[in-house]
Amino acid sequence: xxxxxxxxxxxxxxxxxxxxxxxxxxxxxxxxxxxxxxxxxxxxxxxxxxxxxxxxxxxxxxxxxxxxxxxxxxxxxxxxxxxxxxxxxxxxxxxxx
Length: 97
What we know:
Layout lengths: L7 H17 L6 H40 L15 H5 L7
């Protein structure tokens, strides 16, 4: 008795066939251990990649910051310039120890 898709018996036959097929499948004895080991390896790799990425970004930020700070002019600046400072010259104490 052959049934075409859409007939009431087709769904029942398909269910029975799939149940019979599923009953024949037996998992490998160490399937859980293998799957868990793979998951743990991926998790460790993900954490390691994240740690390396954070370290690289931090190192680049420090290097860029040091480079920017090193680009200042080498001459004397307006801050802490001694007698030419507006604070030192405004109180009349310029040049006095």
